[in-house]
């Protein structure tokens, strides 16, 4: 087993080196001419040929950004650490609000076929709406861009949690509920001691999907409302057509998304059970 | 320079003169002697017993002091001996009987009142048109008027509009047609907006993809896809005007899309756009990125056309008149400072960093100095490629409305003059400019020449209908 891991790591790293190497070679700046005319100087010289920056440039930039992640140079220029913290704060606020609503309602419609039938049409209509379609409406009604971004996270992370909770609760094995009934447990105790543990893995799957979506959405939302956050960072660098920074921020978004997913993956393992 | 203290002018024991060697904090460089934002040391420096403590009282004291000093011909020795002889109370009464002290105080306060709000949010879209709004921040023009302004970078015009309507921005960088459109409710909920100052004049260009170097005649542009930054923009109206004058129908022969400025260069490179009329630095940036060339500067379509604006809601101005006045003064100062070509290099460096435009300094410099590479192999020298002039001509507002009418953005009877005069505060701004020592026109209407055709603001409806290509 260990040797498989080692071999996998070797293959992985070889791939990385190969890809980066090819990228580095293909993205070299052309040789600068020795003496530039005034026109060439105003055109930015050979440096300004359009091309994807080589990995060495991205790594240098990443090093620079990560060595001082919390600098604050005015309202529109903050370190990558501060930007990520803003994004995580927004995602968690929206996500927790969604959780507070999705879990109880999911429980309700999972346990009551009547409520399921009554609410299902609304859920089906609201679920496929793109998060950014909500943005103009949110800005208009809430009148606060930060709260609007949080609202968009809320509205799009609620559905997977809601549906998975309902599904998990509805599919708890009938025998177990019957056993609870023979023990004369009240509905609340049945819900907490029998249904919740039984449905927990499905609920957590929904929560895991939701956090993934929330993290996807935040970048787009922040590009629009701006000011702070990783989405704003990407937009600001895009404004400057600075691809090295854009690539760096894409990597950072990936890393944070992976960490969020890992945390919920761990939580999921905690509630797993074998029948 | 000697500073005048806020000591009681009726007190014979107190000197009002600070000599060149004076070492009190008021006279130390850097602390300044603003009446509205007094340094705390200044208060402590004056005699503790009768020093004015709030800004109202300070203003009163400053006026008394000015009057008393002028009575004594600014001779402090005479004043002190007179006050000692008379006693402060009777001297004040005597002076009050011959000079309307209270009225003088009220009059001064009216124009220099206490700021209702000192922390302000002002939005800007990161383009060189916003130069005065932006540079006023790093170069301290807002501070000069006691304002603590946060300038916030905004993703686009629609967001600037929504954040302004939501009250998140106290004032914002906008496009000159926007406050007109917002006031009339075209493209948004109607909300009375005012535009006391134009930010920049000229400063735009039509850029084409480098592949179209041989298509310099607009008649060859049929089927082209063009980008403009916003529907209600001078960019849209000038591009439509230019195309139509060249016999190309902007609605039928070409496609005009709304594309945010930073995306224009990327879209041009990807071949999604054949060209665009956009704000700088994205025209120069296309040249710098070697994907486009500058076909024509908009100054060659209409020399001196307005472009971007400084605007706020009418509500903000009426609820915070003094703050609004201070903010407008800072903007007028900054705009006048930007006008001077000697300052342009310095400004380019101040606004290029990440916090503001986030662009390479050489690109900004080429835009602001007008010494630039055109992408066709030539170095051009056009010092007024972009210029700055705050005066919001009513006739410019009327012209914009005629174009909105011409292209069907507004319908029915339009009271051109009334709307332009409600939104563009040319009269008030002109007065303020003169008060601040700048020259301002006494008229608010004039004729403009656009591609050789004269626009007479007295006959807007006729003008809107006078074009061969149009939707009226």
UniProtKB/TrEMBL annotation, chain A:
Keyword check for Chloroplast: no
Cross-referenced InterPro entries: MetI-like (IPR000515), MetI-like_sf (IPR035906), NtrB (IPR005889)
CDD domains: TM_PBP2
Cell inner membrane found in the keyword field: yes
Taxonomic superkingdom: Bacteria
Family annotation (Pfam families): BPD_transp_1 (PF00528)
Subcellular location: Cell inner membrane; Cell membrane
Residues covered by the ABC transmembrane type-1 domain: 84-264
Membrane topology: Multi-pass membrane protein
Similarity section: Belongs to the binding-protein-dependent transport system permease family.
Name of the protein in its database record: Nitrate ABC transporter permease
Species assigned in the record: Marinobacter salinisoli
Automatic annotation (TrEMBL), chain B:
SUPFAM superfamilies per the UniProt record, alphabetical: Periplasmic binding protein-like II
Keyword Lyase: no
Pfam family, one: NMT1_2
Family annotation (InterPro entries): NrtA/CpmA_ABC-bd_dom, TAT_signal, TAT_signal_bac_arc
Gene3D superfamilies, alphabetized: Periplasmic binding protein-like II (3.40.190.10)
Predominant cellular place of this UniProt entry's protein: membrane
Keyword field: Cell inner membrane, Cell membrane, Membrane, Signal, Transport
Subcellular location: Endomembrane system; Periplasm
Family note: Belongs to the bacterial solute-binding protein SsuA/TauA family.
Protein known as: ABC transporter substrate-binding protein
Organism, scientific name: Marinobacter salinisoli
Lineage start: Bacteria, Pseudomonadati, Pseudomonadota, Gammaproteobacteria, Pseudomonadales
